[in-house]
Design brief:
single chain; Alpha-Beta Plaits; 2 domains; 4-stranded antiparallel beta sheet; elongated
Length: 165
């Protein structure tokens, strides 16, 4: 009997994040309320693992983060990828906030996912492989049901599916 599987991972699409970055930058330069202010967005580092948002106040930082969220939603990307837990820092009449991207599942998150799948669908096998969870079954319908189940959960981290076989 054939064995089907897929992986549950927590990662973001780098190409889509590039597009979001470009769109946000374009909107910042065109918006009237940002003219003559230090409002800007930049990459956090050379690896492009986050944004650095700059403005003249917390209000402007929130406005730029709102633009980022709208652009992510328009491109069908999860807003949970943004880690806005770091506090904004103010210096020289500028406020900036680092917003790194969340990526990867730690052991606790993997265990939470596997427990949910085992409790709801006992016929499906799960296996933790580093920062991914492999889900296996002899029925493709069961795998689709697991995907639907995972999508309905409200985790505080982005979840995507890869390696579907």
């Amino acid at each position: 009997m054939a064995q089907f599987s897929f992986d549950i991972v927590s990662e973001y699409d780098k190409a889509e994040m590039n597009n979001v970055f470009d769109q946000v930058q374009r909107e910042i330069t065109n918006r009237y309320d940002f003219k003559g202010t230090p409002a800007a967005i930049a990459w956090l580092n050379d690896d492009k693992t986050g944004f650095k948002v700059t403005g003249n106040s917390d209000y402007q930082i929130d406005a730029i983060l709102d633009i980022i969220r709208k652009k992510l939603a328009a491109r069908e990307q999860s807003q949970k990828v943004l880690d806005t837990s770091k506090e904004p820092t103010a210096s020289n009449l500028q406020t900036s906030q680092e917003v790194p991207f969340k990526q990867g599942l730690d052991q606790d998150k993997c265990k939470k996912i596997t427990k949910l799948v085992r409790d709801e669908m006992p016929k499906v096998k799960t296996q933790i492989q580093g920062d991914t969870v492999r889900v296996m079954s002899s029925s493709k319908d069961d795998l689709q049901s697991v995907m639907d189940l995972i999508r309905t959960q409200d985790y505080d981290f982005p979840v995507s599916f890869t390696n579907y076989r």
